[in-house]
Specification:
Layout: H1 37-60, E1 66-69, H2 74-89, E2 99-102, H3 109-122, E3 126-129, H4 133-143, E4 149-151, E5 167-169, E6 178-180, H5 188-197
Parallel strand pairs: 1-2, 1-4, 2-3, 4-6
Antiparallel strand pairs: 5-6
GO molecular function: ATP binding; FMN adenylyltransferase activity
Enzyme class: transferase
Pathway: Cofactor biosynthesis; FAD biosynthesis; FAD from FMN: step 1/1
């Protein structure tokens, strides 16, 4: 497979009407993310590495042995877009690798809507369970025993991900399969740079100050994105969009401890 120029293609996917990303409507929002030539080259190199990872994965696993775990978040959204671009370039049906979505009674309606939009936009097969993650995976392995490996959008700055490898088996007690983590080395800003370079649609919560999205009971807009003029107000319109977060170490500042 000639992968030399794959990552240089920035056009939208054939047969998919990719929307422009949703822009936020908060006051004084005149800041578009600036993409320099250096940043663009860096993201191209990042994408090339992911393509090579997918290619290596397909030398180990058959298409029917793979699934993609999707939660509607920014990292998974980037991985979904990269994976679908790779499949298209290799003339592989987008439904060949299904999307696994674990739905919760406490999930944001915005996330559920975004997941449904992604299924339609990318023409992927949706596998959905409404159970805790471990139970859902156990049922998935019973319903789909052919699955051997799962793509995940983990980055090494995520909780408990600082020591995991790009290919790593699940922990003891979990259904046995290989976890595929091609975005481990990507930074918070790498994710947003990719989204802006490729005009990738994303969940609208990110326009309203959310930077790390869990469930409704543990997720708030990031306080580091609050406009100074709105410091005494508690409305989503008073937050800058997620990509304006300067200090990436504060990505999870809006996540509440249980």
């Amino acid at each position: 497979v000639n992968m030399k120029h794959c990552c240089l293609q920035t056009e939208t996917l054939t047969n998919n009407n990719l929307d422009k990303r949703r822009m936020s409507a908060e006051p004084n929002s005149e800041c578009e993310l600036q993409i320099t030539t250096t940043i663009r080259k860096h993201i191209q190199e990042r994408v090339q590495i992911v393509y090579e990872f997918i290619e290596s994965t397909l030398q180990i696993y058959k298409l029917e042995e793979l699934i993609f775990c999707f939660n509607g978040g920014k990292d998974c959204t980037v991985l979904l877009d990269v994976l679908m671009r790779y499949l298209q370039q290799q003339n592989i049906d987008s439904r060949s690798i299904p999307m696994l979505y674990i739905e919760s009674h406490d999930s944001f309606a915005d996330i559920d809507e975004f997941v449904a939009n992604c299924v339609q936009r990318y023409q992927v097969q949706l596998i959905k369970y409404q159970q805790p993650l471990m139970s859902a995976l156990k049922h998935m392995t019973e319903d789909m025993p052919e699955i051997k490996a799962v793509f995940m959008g983990c980055r090494n700055t995520d909780p408990y991900c600082d020591k995991i490898k790009p290919m790593q088996p699940t922990d003891n007690g979990w259904p046995a399969m290989m976890r595929l983590n091609p975005l481990l080395e990507w930074s918070y800003h790498d994710i947003w740079h990719y989204i802006h370079i490729h005009n990738v649609p994303y969940c609208s919560l990110y326009d309203r100050g959310y930077t790390s999205i869990g469930h409704r009971n543990n997720t708030l807009p990031n306080p580091h994105l609050l406009f100074d003029s709105c410091a005494n107000k508690d409305t989503p319109a008073c937050y800058k969009p997620a990509w304006e977060l300067v200090d990436a170490t504060q990505e999870r500042a809006g996540r509440q401890s249980k």
